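Priority: low. Protein: Manganese transport system ATP-binding protein. Input follows.
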Amino acid sequence: MTAETAVELDGVTVRYGDVLALDAVTLRLAAGRVHALLGTNGSGKSTLFKAVTGMLAPQRGSVLLYGHSPDAARKRGLVGYVPQSEQVDWEFPVRVADVVMMGRYGHMGFTRRPRAADRAAVDAALERTGLTELAGRQIGALSGGQRKRVFVARGIAQGARLFLLDEPFAGVDKGSEATIIEVLRAMRDDGHTLLVSTHDLAGVPAFSDDAVLLQHRVVAQGPPEEVLTPDLLLDAFGLRAGDAAGARGEGVR
Ligand SMILES: Nc1ncnc2c1ncn2[C@@H]1O[C@H](COP(=O)(O)OP(=O)(O)OP(=O)(O)O)[C@@H](O)[C@H]1O
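Result:
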């Protein structure tokens, strides 16, 4: 029996003018696993996220999410997106619980008046991400790691099955990183699928079941210990054997 496929890219090609960002990328991500997406600066990670969320239509190839087109998957609320911190206006005066409630908008009528089921879903999502105590706090008054968890909670409240996390460990301290990893594992154990972009190669085995090395095309995919080999890293990152631990942050994203 083959495992359920959460994400299926077939020959996906994206160009921005003369720049070939994704070159016939074919990729299958099994459901119910944590997948790390690794690649240097400009290797096409954000473009791949955009193709998966349907923000961008590839010039060639197809994308399926649990068998649905990206648009259909979005309308069904199947995809949760955790953006990079700099893409969010943290000064916007809104409470943690309000951001998580946004995940329920698709379930509400035009009035956007939360019902008991919406409140229950928000409470459960806050609990799952360890944010119950912070429900009333302004998002601007959270740590970097707590902010990531708010967006994860929004996706859980929405009922998403696939989560895309863009550099969730960037700018968070070790303690917060460990908490995020716990949340990712718990979500995986609940049956969610997670695709996590990171430049922190050394941390990859700790949080992911599978790794994908991207350099405009898929260089390698498999268990982290099989993907993070010196030869493959040299291919994708230009790194030499033994450099991986030293690569944290240093221009390798
Ligand atoms: N809107 C755009 N217009 C032109 N070129 C673009 C655009 N967006 C991305 N690119 C180029 O496409 C390539 C892939 O970019 P992408 O942002 O997907 O990479 P990335 O792996 O996410 O990089 P980073 O780690 O820096 O976020 C790069 O060469 C980038 O300069």
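Residues 244-253 have pLDDT under 50 and may be disordered. The domain at 1-78+162-171+192-240 is CATH 3.40.50.300 (Rossmann fold).
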